[in-house]
Amino acid sequence: xxxxxxxxxxxxxxxxxxxxxxxxxxxxxxxxxxxxxxxxxxxxxxxxxxxxxxxxxxxxxxxxxxxxxxxxxxxxxxxxxxxxxxxxxxxxxxxxxxxxxxxxxxxxxxxxxxxxxxxxxxxxxxxxxxxxxxxxxxxxxxxxxxxxxxxxxxxxxxxxxxxxxxxxxxxxxxxxxxxxxxxxxxxxxxxxxxxxxxxxxxxxxxxxxxxxxxxxxxxxxxxxxxxxxxxxxxxxxxxxxxxxxxxxxxxxxxxxxxxxxxxxxxxxxxxxxxxxxxxxxxxxxxxxxxxxxxxxxxxxxxxxxxxxxxxxxxxxxxxxxxxxxxxxxxxxxxxxxxxxxx
Amino acid sequence: xxxxxxxxxxxxxxxxxxxxxxxxxxxxxxxxxxxxxxxxxxxxxxxxxxxxxxxxxxxxxxxxxxxxxxxxxxxxxxxxxxxxxxxxxxxxxxxxxxxxxxxxxxxxxxxxxxxxxxxxxxxxxxxxxxxxxxxxxxxxxxxxxxxxxxxxxxxxxxxxxxxxxxxxxxxxxxxxxxxxxxxxxxxxxxxxxxxxxxxxxxxxxxxxxxxxxxxxxxxxxxxxxxxxxxxxxxxxxxxxxxxxxxxxxxxxxxxxxxxxxxxxxxxxxxxxxxxxxxxxxxxxxxxxxxxxxxxxxxxxxxxxxxxxx
Amino acid sequence: xxxxxxxxxxxxxxxxxxxxxxxxxxxxxxxxxxxxxxxxxxxxxxxxxxxxxxxxxxxxxxxxxxxxxxxxxxxxxxxxxxxxxxxxxxxxxxxxxxxxxxxxxxxxxxxxxxxxxxxxxxxxxxxxxxxxxxxxxxxxxxxxxxxxxxxxxxxxxxxxxxxxxxxxxxxxxxxxxxxxxxxxxxxxxxxxxxxxxxxxxxxxxxxxxxxxxxxxxxxxxxxxxxxxxxxxxxxxxxxxxxxxxxxxxxxxxxxxxxxxxxxxxxxxxxxxxxxxxxxxx
Lengths: 342, 309, 281
Fold this sequence. Notes:
The structure holds 3 protein chains of 3 kinds.
Chain A: E1 2-13, E2 16-27, E3 31-35, H1 42-50, E4 57-62, E5 65-66, E6 77-80, H2 92-102, H3 107-120, H4 136-148, E7 154-158, H5 166-183, E8 187-191, H6 194-200, E9 203-208, E10 211-216, H7 218-223, H8 228-233, E11 240-243, E12 249-252, E13 258-259, E14 268-280, E15 285-291, E16 300-304, E17 319-325, E18 330-332
Parallel strand pairs in A: 3-8, 3-9, 6-7, 7-8
Antiparallel strand pairs in A: 1-2, 1-4, 4-5, 9-10, 11-12, 12-18, 13-17, 14-15, 14-17, 15-16
Helix pairs in contact in A: 2-3, 2-4, 3-4
Chain B: H1 22-52, H2 69-76, H3 78-110, H4 116-128, H5 131-141, H6 148-155, H7 171-200, H8 203-211, H9 216-244, H10 248-253, H11 265-275, H12 279-287, H13 289-308
Chain C: H1 3-36, H2 40-43, H3 60-68, H4 71-102, H5 106-118, H6 123-136, H7 144-149, H8 151-168, H9 171-179, H10 184-195, H11 197-213, H12 216-221, H13 230-237, E1 239-240, E2 243-244, H14 246-275
Antiparallel strand pairs in C: 1-2
Helix pairs in contact in C: 1-14, 3-14, 4-5, 4-8, 4-11, 4-13, 5-8, 8-11, 8-14, 9-10, 11-14, 13-14
């Protein structure tokens, strides 16, 4: 059974369509990431699921029940906010027990549940503090405990790492993912950061302009983007897109765009590449340039392993024979959708 | 995990969650305040307009409609025209004086010096203390016999006891007195408004102007002043509204005297409408405040709108 | 001009300027204090230097105030009025301020400005119709009329003040509570209200001082001495015949003014932020 199922959800604010018909199925226990640029409607969609916004049309089912007209408290959903939304005037213990107290659970049961959640997240020693006395990482764990304690049908997270600095973000990511795998909780995670999406999601839904562009595993999204938006939004640097001579577009990832002599077998397409600039990034070298005979809106990039390509061998202004394996070429039709090969 | 999948068994009625609709709850929460204000400000305002168009007195509470007759009678009364003139002199004289004092006071209080907090607390006093009580303190200072101001001037040799001014007995001096008291009451407010405005100007804007070669005066009048103008305007609007409609200073200090020299709109409305019981004419007099209030409100709305851009 | 002289001249000018403002602002209160504690024979002798005590200070005036006048009664009246008006104001303005702050549409903002503008409608425009309404309700000459009327200016003012405060409160906390099982109303009661205690305290103080400062309505509606609030009583009732009793009057004014002055000084910044509608950031 799907924990969360939406059918053609639409949300309009005045004239603006924030969510433009999203149908999504999140099975039990899945870690689903909603990935998209800011303003694409992903947060609005999340807020519709938890009930903080009411959809203009469409159906929302949670745990098999239609909850269109139900207020948030009747939906059995937990949510973790960007800055965690801890209750500053409550102790950690009361923060965690709050969802249970609103359900009027007997106090000894509450006690048991809180201790269980606190032990699971290793915050037993913090129970009598207040949120402002906690570090960022501790706050996150308290927020997770509060979300977990009522055993929700699904946990929603709205860009929970965006307020953290880069270092903390990596460990916080680990923690959320570990936690989710341990308890097997259905999770819907909103982010604009593709690294988070690729690293954490069982599946990713790429959203743009209020529509789902593609749903798939990280591999599917990366290897087989459904359209030009997904192709250029996911991956850094993004997929190279050139107009194809037969109409439509040709795409290939920068790491597949290599000097001709680095590709061993046949079955590759050759291009003549003029190098304009190159950046050395330690583990890789990014080379920017243009391709002979192709029109492109942005410079073509190639991601080369520095160990194989010495700095002196590729200089700005030089033309080099480059190639892409045919299996790594992706074809798109004139409207930008993925087309089968030729 | 994720056990909670058992469906919600209770039947859900539409009305159970009526307060969970944002619009409904918002309306319910704001309603008492709106109702209170509508019933005890909106309704009386309409009543005041109606009274002014009727022949209502407390001795003869009739609702007879007389059109603009009350207004015509009032406008033909020379003492009313004096009252109108007095009100404007009182309002703009005291606001101007208060503003000048406020500007200088703010300028002094802007720089840090030991004891600034105490000085500020002392300077705030005139605005903090109930105006009625402050007025009677001034009345005592303007006393015809025991005026401390006169005593000081006599002691300083500026005047002699014989020609000591009778502050509240002379028409011009009495007007000066109420202007001074009102300016005195509002200048701390002006200081605080100025200070709030100036401290709200971002330091980097001032620094940028200095780097760009703006001197002291240019910084003051071309950078800071325009930026604090909106907040000053709001302060001034408050000052004008509360002065233009004031009653307490005149009532306690001069009773409109001598000879109507300090009668202002609020006082005249009170005398006619409450003391003499001629509600209709009293209401008509009070309603002369309305045009000024409307102008002020329009200004206020414009400033509020500009602030949001 | 040599530097040091210029600097010391500037310093002197500065001190003189500050001194001028302090004397201008505070002298009437100094005058209140000195009058309240002076003996009558000292007070009404023009040959004495009036600025300090020529005869020993006395508590005579204050004693008189409490024993021979209704001063204590007026204090009590003002306290009752203040408490009741504060209660009415809190019950209406806290939800209203919250609602206005959380309304997302332009309508909410327009409504907020409208409520605030009613604060500018002056008592001298409303006292005539209100006195008729109060007579209809049978409240004439009773301090309960003031309890009814004072919220007309405290509600708009405090709603506006609270609206600014609630706007600054992160919505996330309330939303977390809503998802965690609160109703919208529950989130208001359990989250927004406890977190706004400082603002509510400010509102309490201001409501109280506004009721103490009010004069026009009190003057219009109340004529019996025993129903008067302190400000009205002190300024109109301590005159016997044509004679002023300055010692008693000043003592009364002083006692009534001290709490208001202290409260104002403590909460002034919030007051200014309130009336300028958050134009100060």
